[in-house]
Amino acid sequence: MLTYVKNKLLKNKWMTISLLIGNILLISIASCSPIYSDAALQKLLQSDLQKQLTATDQYPGTIEFRGNYTTAGLGQSDYSVSEKLEALAGEFAREVTFPLQYTTGEYFMSGVKALHEGEKATNAMSGFSVRVDALENMEDHVNLISGSFPSNQVDEDRVLEAIVSASTLMNFDLSMGETLTMSGIKTRGGDMYYIRIVGVFEASALSDPYWNTNPNLTTNYIYTNYEAFRDTFVKSESSRMSFNEAFFITMDYTVLRGTDVDALVRLCDEYTERAGELFPKAMTVRCYDTLKQYQVNAEHLSTTLLVLQVPIFLLLAAFIFMVSGQMLSIDQAEIAMIKSRGASRKQILTIYLLQSSVVTLISLAVAIPLGFLICQVIGSANAFLEFVRRRALSARMSPQVLLYALGAALVSVATMLIPALSYSKVGIVEAKRTKHKQSRPFWQKMFLDVLLLAVSLYGLYSYNHQASFLAEQLQQGGSLDPLLYMCSSMFILGCAMLFVRLFPLVVKLVFAAFKKLWSPGLYASFLRILRSKGNQDFIMIFLVLTMAMGIFSAETARTINSNAEEMIRYENGADLVLRESWNSRQIGDEGTSYVEPDFRKYEELEGAASVTKVFLGSGFTVSVNKSRVKDVTVMGIHTREFGETAYMKDGLLKNHWYNYLNAISQDPNGILVSTAFRDEQGLKLGDKILYSGTGKGSISGTIYGFVDYWPSLTPPQKAADDTEKYFIIGSLELMQSEWGVSPYQVWIRNAEASSQYIYDFAQEKEIGFVEFRDTNADLIALKNDPVFQATNGILTVGFIVVLLLCSVGFLIYWIQSIRSRQLQFGIFRAMGMAMGEILGMLLNEQIWLSLTSILMGALVGKLAAKLYVPLIQMAYSSERQLIPLEIVSVQSDALRLYIVVGIVMVLCMLILGRLIRKIKIAQALKLGED
Amino acid sequence: MEENKNIMIHAEDISRAFPVGNDLFWGLKHIDMDICSGELTILKGRSGSGKTTLLNILSALDRPTEGKLFLDGQDVTAMSDGERDLLRRGKIGYIYQSVALIPMMSAYENVEFALRLAEKTPEGKARLTEGRRKRAEDCLHMVGLGSRMSHMPQEMSGGEQQRVAIARAIASRPLVLFADEPTAELDTNTGLQVVKIFKDLCRAEGVTIVMTTHDTGLMDIGDRVYELEDGEVIGHKYE
């Protein structure tokens, strides 16, 4: 049977190749999802952990258990609890499944009074305060500058040995060999303990995650031997003192993988609860927030990947179904003949199950490696249909990849078998009888098109009504409901099916209207279009789907990218926004005087095309209409330089924003105010207001314009609260002359795309900026965001898949159509129809079936984008969408699709023309004798 | 007498070869033949004798490898493909062994379609004086299918389909009608009816009919019979 299947596949080699293409793409795209998620999130996780290390200077992989014991009745006086904490920490260390770098115990006593050798305590406060510390395995992590390591024994005179850092030595003016009297550590009988300084140390490597505090900088720590401290002051009941304990479990976070996070978080939660029962907040997981954020990102990314891929899967499944159906229609006579010879339905299905399995197995072998390649393609996506060279993602095989691949393979086998279910039922008599029978398709009888449209439009209505709630959910870390994406796919599919339902009516109308004018070829062509169903409907739906999804993918990706980029540009206001630290001094009751840094250095920057000063202050008060509006934001600008430097998207204001700048430039008191002043305070153009700040006099402003949007300012309608609703833009010169010079921001427009020059400049001049925003860097961070990358990547891959499927599906359908109509063409030729007339017939069919479907697909894609992209885009918005969403469509995307489809159509016509020319009439007529 | 009749088709030294691997198989060898106007000519012979190959050449569906063919005084072998298309459209009717109706057209539409094609030629237009609709209906009545005009081919029996094919072939009043085993898939009675229609056409409308058959019962009804074997004419009878 395997040989039979092999021969069948080879006989229809082009169909087999098409089937393989469909299967390989389906399995590879399915398997690339976990590959990409794993790789991208891993990159993000490590990046976030590294950022945490840089920001906090604390090793993120450390988990701390902290407790205490006290003899004095303050705090935990039950020693067993402290013991339990130690045991819990040990248990946790054993539960962690990946490499630990260290497990370190620490005991210490804080604020212990010590006296120099020979000193006597005159009162309870005599001496200096030290922290007596004991760190497990400290000898392995320090270098002795002088002396020796402390002994692990306490001698009979109650003397412990200790080492100190050079800072501590100098701070307390200690000397080597000196014995300190620890007036704060006494036996039950009141005898004091002593600590002898036997060594001075420095940390071997400060970057060593062993260190939780920089020991070189500690100025009051005295480190005794860990065992000595523990055995004397902790374990021994007779000599137990009040102490603090800490247990550090240090994981190597660089080997932490995304797949470990869920288990680690669960473990941490469990132990945090248990530790909390012993001591409040006993357990601290330094990277906990990072891990939780990872989980949110992972879910978001998985959902995003899944829903973005659903339309591609649908398309691929439809393609596989179509090709499989075509192959079966070719085999129909053979199947019917086999059935008439006694083969059961089960046997026939077994043949096709074997065939599908062979195709799928071959596809699996190619698809999984292809999945890795697609993952890299997604990882290098910079925007829609744009790729850059990036460090390759470290993609790896995992059981999940195999699971996804096998799942897709099963779907593929099932899809290929579906047509076989109906064909295997039909015997030879029924096959001949029903060969030319045309019945309405199932989906038309059940009005599936109407149902799909109704559900998708209801979904749209429902989501639109909940838009603000959904936006809030998303801000809190939720993912967009996958059903929303399904709605857009259902809408597209419903439109395609409705088009196919209504299409014959339109054709009939045109055919009837111009019946007298049609040539014989066109007449025959129209009759064929009107009276042939089945595959024709399918190819039309397929073409509408591919075009619509291509356009929809393109517009979704462009809109998401464009809006996210515009948001960043709007929020920042310019390419670079920075503020240095200003020196200041208080001048009695007159307020603060600032020393303005040299501004010229920015103007002289070679990389800066233009520079301007922008004062931005909040908490100002405006007197208007005998009332006072508080918490107003004031922006002071130099109008010309501001116009040259800042960025404002066209179309946000009624007039171009330069007009507003020009208006206020004519009057030093001229101001622009937010529309909240107009809408809520009833102000009009020309009205005068007074604005002032704490310790600042009032400035009179004349209103020259009301604006909703202004670079970097929150629009009143998006204000989170009243403090963001009101803003004023006025002359910086006037503000500085009235209020004096206050710290302002420096806004810069780059001469070139890169902002590297400012980093070099800051390093060279050793300038530390208290405020620094780099739009370029933010845009790059956006493009590196796994969710954005995945979106761009998947939509781009989807677009390319669409192009490929469209081309292949189109060719298959038409070539198959011609092959099955050879007899008809033979008859037409025998009746005297010229070759040109037959080609004219095909062209007419192409125009009506293919071209109208393609145009319809483009229309449906645009409509779907207009309806659904605003909601989908919510998932990619920053915390608040400050500027209105704009659906972006780039003509070149649609043009690319049209060009490819056009080329394919022309290619198809050429191939079909060649096929028809090759038809020998006599041979074609003989086909009828079969 | 034979000499007094107009020769509608004159075939001179017609041979046809087919490539088989690296060799040539000669399906027809040096055929000389004259078919007179208004006669029913039968080409008889066993299966594989070359009847259909000869018919395809005579009807301008195929080109001979060697030799010349004249139809109604025109050198068909010298014609371009376009001229041959026009010839078939305006002057020739064809009935196939496999019936070969256009499946998405009804019986009426199949016949009417042939008229649409014929009307585009000057000869066809000249011969069709009564309009397509009337002519199509008349032809279908002539073959006894007046009540089945709106039926699709798949709703008819083999014999009915063949009669529609005959109606289609004669609708444009062709000069010559070629029929390849027209009764092969019909029962005896229906076959005889078809042959009677052919005889009537020859007598009443002066249509020249060339027909192939291996039905021995029909071999003697023609005005002229050519017997073929292995691609050669081995016998010629004129009644």
Describe the structure concisely.
The complex is a heterodimer of chains A (930) and B (239). With 930 residues, chain A is α+β, with helices and mostly antiparallel strands. In chain A, the strands form four sheets. In chain A, strands 1, 2, 3, 4, 5, 6, 7, 8, 9 and 10 form a ten-stranded mixed sheet that branches. Chain A has a six-stranded mixed β-barrel with strand order 16-17-21-18-20-19, surrounded by four helices.
What does this structure look like?
Chain A is α+β, with helices and mostly antiparallel strands. Helices cover 55% and strands 18% of the residues of chain A. Chain A is built from 28 helices and 23 strands. In chain A, the strands form 4 sheets. In chain A, strands 1, 2, 3, 4, 5, 6, 7, 8, 9 and 10 form a 10-stranded mixed beta sheet that branches. In chain A, helix 2 runs parallel beside helix 8 (345-379), helix 7 packs parallel to helix 9 and helix 14 (482-513) runs antiparallel to helix 26 (835-873). The longest helix of chain A has 53 residues, at 288-340. Chain B has 239 residues and is α/β, with parallel strands linked by helices. Chain B has 7 helices and 10 strands. Chain B has helices spanning 51-58, 81-91, 107-119, 122-127, 132-142, 158-171, 188-205; strands at residues 7-20, 23-36, 40-44, 66-71, 74-75, 92-95, 176-180, 208-213, 224-229, 232-238. In chain B, strand 1 (7-20) and strand 2 (23-36) form a beta hairpin. In chain B, helix 3 crosses helix 5 (132-142), helix 3 packs parallel to helix 6 (158-171) and helix 5 crosses helix 6. In chain B, 50% of the residues are buried. The interface between A and B is medium-sized, with 31 and 35 residues.
